[in-house]
Amino acid sequence: MVRSELLEQIYTIVAQIPPGRVTTYGRVAKMTEGATARMVGTAMRHLPDGHELPWHRVINASRRVTEHEGAARQRERLWAEGVIFDASGRVSPDVMWP
């Protein structure tokens, strides 16, 4: 599991991603003091009930939604915010944050 101070850093960063923008697990990790992309993914999978973090705005390094049980819902939420996917399922580099 991810240390609580790293979880707090990850959640603080994810909370700042604006609607209509996305970032990668790796980019979030680089903004912390020692998290890895895998740790960020683990943190997104284990969000506490009732959270309001925009978890759906974190995607993989190939600019795609990682396949998992919530992937369809993640794509729907991004689409609702105006994020467009190309034919291969990638988002435009123009919507990357920061």
List the helices and strands and how they pair.
Layout: H1 4-15, E1 23-24, H2 25-30, H3 37-45, E2 58-59, H4 71-80
Parallel strand pairs: 1-2
InterPro entries: ATL_DNA_repair, MethylDNA_cys_MeTrfase_DNA-bd, MethylDNA_cys_MeTrfase_DNAb, WH-like_DNA-bd_sf
Keywords: DNA damage
Domain Methylated-DNA-[protein]-cysteine S-methyltransferase DNA binding: 8-83
Please provide a written account of the structure.
By secondary structure, the protein is mostly helical. The protein has one domain (4-95): Arc Repressor Mutant, subunit A. Helices cover 38% and strands 4% of the residues. The chain is built from four helices and two strands. It has helices at 4-15, 25-30, 37-45, 71-80, and strands spanning 23-24, 58-59. It has a two-stranded parallel ribbon with strand order 1-2. It starts with a helix and ends in an 18-residue tail after the last helix. The relative contact order is 0.21.
